[in-house]
Amino acid sequence: MCVKNSFNTLPAGFPAGHVVSAEGGRGRPVMWVSEHAGLAIQRWWEPMFDDHPQTGLYPLLLDESIDIALLGTAPTADVIDRVPGDQLIREYFDFSGNGWPGFAPAQRLAVHPGYAAARLAAEGADTARLALVPSVRGADTPALIGWTGAMDYTWDVEKISAVLRTWEDRFGVRVIRLGGTTLELSVAAPPSTITEARRITLEHAGFCPSIWQEEVALNSYAAGLVKRPAWRFQWA
Q1: What pTM value is reported for the model?
Q2: For residues 112 and 103, what is the distance between their CA atoms, to the nearest angstrom?
Q3: Ordered alpha helix ranges (H), the chain
C-alpha cells in the first residue's frame, strides 16, 4: 500500500473542510473534516474508500454527536502494534472471574469487505460529516484521532483499535461511522450459525460490556449476529 498521508492530495472539487488536531487542537494533526454534513458530503465516502490504498487517507463518517473539541490523546500506530489484540477482552473476563475461551475462528467471507462497507456507509441519516484519517488500517482510526467514545469503559483507545484489527482479519470488518459514544462496523464475514455467534458474542462483551443492557441474554444477542452484515456498539 502506498501511504502518502497528505491532506494536500484531495481531488479537485472536494468539499470544504479543515485539518483537526488531537487533544483539543494541542496535539498533532490527525484528520481532515468536512465543514458541512449531508448527503452530498457522504457521497464522497465511497470514492475515498476506494482510493485509500493510493492516498493513505481512510474515510470515516462522523455523526453529529461527536464533539471534535473533546478528542483525547491520540496514540500512533506503533503504540497499537504493542497492544495484544485480546488484551481488552482478557481484562474484562479476568475482572469478571469468568473464563474466556479465546478468539473465535475466522469466518468465510460472505461478500467482499468493500461491498459490505459501501452498503453500510449508504445507510442511516444524512447528517454525518466526512473525515479523512491518515492510516494504513481502518481499525486504527479511532485510536489515531483520539476518539473518546469508550472512555466510560477504557481510556486506552489503542486497546479498542487492537481488537478491531483482529476483527478486520477474521471477519472482514471495516470501521464506517463514529459517534460520541457509538461505533458502527460493516461485517463481510458474519457468523452463519448460532454456535459461531455465541463465541463472537463473548468478544463483543469484552469489547463493549454495554451489550448486556436491558437484560439481553447471550443466546438472544448471539441470534442477532447470525448473518448480520453490521455491528453497532454504544458505550453507556
Answers
A1: 0.94
A2: 22
A3: 39-42, 45-55, 77-81, 87-96, 113-121, 141-144, 157-171, 194-207, 218-225
